[in-house]
Amino acid sequence: MPIIKSAKKRVLVTDKKNAQNRMLKSALKTQVKKFLTAVESGNKETAEKLLPETFSALDSAVSKGILHKNNAANKKAALSKKLAAMA
Question: How sure is the predictor about 1, in pLDDT bands with cuts at 50, 70 and 90?
Fold first, then answer.
């Protein structure tokens, strides 16, 4: 445990941000999983409805620094490809 006051504060801030980042990443994974479940079950209407929501979640993660923009773009391309393969 740090002794200096500023170091103590950094530990607290880091813990808080870490928890927030894990929460956001978990929510993102849940959203992607919902979309993939809809695709695998063959429910095209639901998958088409969930795709913009999933893209929005990915973009939000990029803006918050959870994901790199190229990583999100790669995921979006893969999800679009899965939806297109349903047809």
Answer: confident
Alpha-carbon distances, residue 60 vs 13, 34, 46, 53, 73 (angstroms): 21, 17, 21, 10, 12
Q: What is the pTM of this model?
A: 0.87
* Domain range list for the chain: 5-86
> Rounded to whole angstroms, how far apart are CA atoms 69 and 59?
8
Q: Identify which of 59, 68, 65 has the alpha carbon closest to the alpha carbon of residue 21.
A: 65
- For residue 85, give both structure tokens: 């393969």
pLDDT at 60 over 80: yes
Q: What is the DSSP letter of 4?
A: S
Q: Provide DSSP, 61-78.
A: HHHTTSS-HHHHHHHHHH
Asked: is 5-86 a CATH 1.20.58.110 domain? The reply is yes
CA distance linking residue 59 with residue 84, whole number of Å: 21
